[in-house]
Amino acid sequence: MLKNVESLKNGRIPRRVKFKLRDLDVFPNTILSPMDGVTDAPFRRLCRVLSGDRMGLLVSEFVPTDGDAAFRVEGHKQLKFFPEERPFGVQIFGRYPDRMAAAAKKIAEELHPDYIEVNAGCPAPKVAGKGSGSGLLRDLPRLQEILHDVRAALDASATEGHVNLPLTLKCRIGWDSDSINVMETLKIAEGEGVEMLTVHGRTRLQGYNGLADWDWIGKVAAAAKIPVIGNGDVNSVEVARERIENYSVSGVSIGRGAMHNPWIFGQIADAWEGKPARVMTATEALDVFPLYYRFKMEDGVTELGALGRLKQLAARLCKGFSESAMDIRQTLLRSGTAGEFFDNLESLREGVARDLVFEPERLVNLNGAKETELKFGDQFAGR
Fold it and tell me: Which pTM value belongs to this model?
């Protein structure tokens, strides 16, 4: 796998190209970051096909547990996944340890994913403001109780004849710059049987603004006895290589970079296998839409719903074309039906797109707005 290093256009192969999650050999050492409303089954399947079935790990959109007195698998569309997505994990979030544990046990026994992940990273006010997601970083004893109870539930499931699944954790480095506590989070995680920690290098207050602090991620990786996956601002093969080499992480988790370049996992796998970088034409990039549309329809969405996601993807991908190609974006976004979208797509493929290349490295800043305040008050209700 590590032959032909000289042929690599963009640099050498990093020392770490895979990692182990218990008995799973994960290659390449990448994860598609779960993003609510983005990384549903159709998008995950799309990325896997475009990668040549070399995705590392896939994770569900996060699944809420607080709202159910008795957790029901059939009540959560985020839990749907296809066999070809494996190895596949389910990420859950909530603030009640008993409900998190019950949900984890039910999911493990009914759906048989490859691992269960606890979310301590989501910054959304409706999540963090109620004490779950990254809100747990304000209450580490509660996070510890959740991890303890979820691990115990998975162990109990194993005694009943089910597979004993690995437990993983996703977190941020802290709530804000004055309360960075990721090293304490690591200690708790390892003590409660967590087998992989993914660290997003921003605080909750940052949201998605500014640059991720990879120095903190590196400190965690250096101290950890378990695989540590770094998350934040990875949007190219070159960045993935640099983060893995310089910060000693076991791998990288990619979110918004994949939204704009769903080929990135295959590009990384190619590089780790010693294959030269490939230039992709704009027409090749546009070929992704029929496949994505098919996956959306197989997922049971309406034509209108599928059209909305086609436009969402078009708006992102077209940022990888030169400025002179803005006509492509505008033409696709003006489509009123799926049929019109594909008619416009064919015209573009035969016209303006023929002489363009897809250059996702043009995307430098994918950051969002910074929030400066968040009400944090009612998360302890009903403890």
Answer: 0.90
